[in-house]
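Worked example 2:
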Amino acid sequence: MLNVRVVKLGGSELDRPGWLAECAQALQDVQPVVVVHGGGQAVNALSRRLGLPVEKRDGRRVTTKDVAEVVEMVLAGPVNRQVVAALRAAGVDAVGLSGVDGGLLTAEPLPGGLGHVGKMTAVRASLLESLVLAGLTPVVAPMAPPAGGGLPLNVNADDAAAALAGALRAAELLQISDVAGVHVDGAAQPAVATSEIDALVERGVVTEGMVVKLRAAAAALKAGARAARIGGLAMLADPTAGTRIFHALPQLA
């Protein structure tokens, strides 16, 4: 079993070259890793330039066929290249991939009327393992075609990272963004049990993007990842930073 971490990069911080360079430097010390990135702000910018709608529901992008083409163009193009370049400049031997490359990711349409949005169904973990064993750091843009082929579906980067972490039996899933962790009633939480997530959502304590992150972390743990945290860049250097997501042990009678 590879002792690999899956690191998801997202949030508005991804658009700041200084932050990305700092992140790349920090990733030198947590090898081996597989990186999954978002890029929502860049997708928004090009969509608006092309006169396409920018709409989200419950933290997920409403994705028409035209928007799906923009997502693929942006994430597999300039955003992936930007992350790879930052890592290589920091001495990390990164290689860029989209979920289409080598049949890495497969998805099916997600119900709910969101359009070309995908739910992860399969990961070709052996491809990532071979790259990691060769000393490379895969950087994955999260689009995934359906099993029968066709236009790749827009998969939320947290969901894709969770699927990768589960398939690789990752030592840890780190969901890094501009949010330092999960906050409840204004207080940062050191840990959240998977059994608490639905109640936090129902109470409106967590909303939109954080709901997606929490549910993705829970899915990763269920699928075989050994640990998961949500937070900021400090998680790369500090094993106690961020909010740890864990399975609660059953209560003894």
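The chain has one domain: 5-246. Residues 35 and 139 are 5 Å apart (CA to CA).
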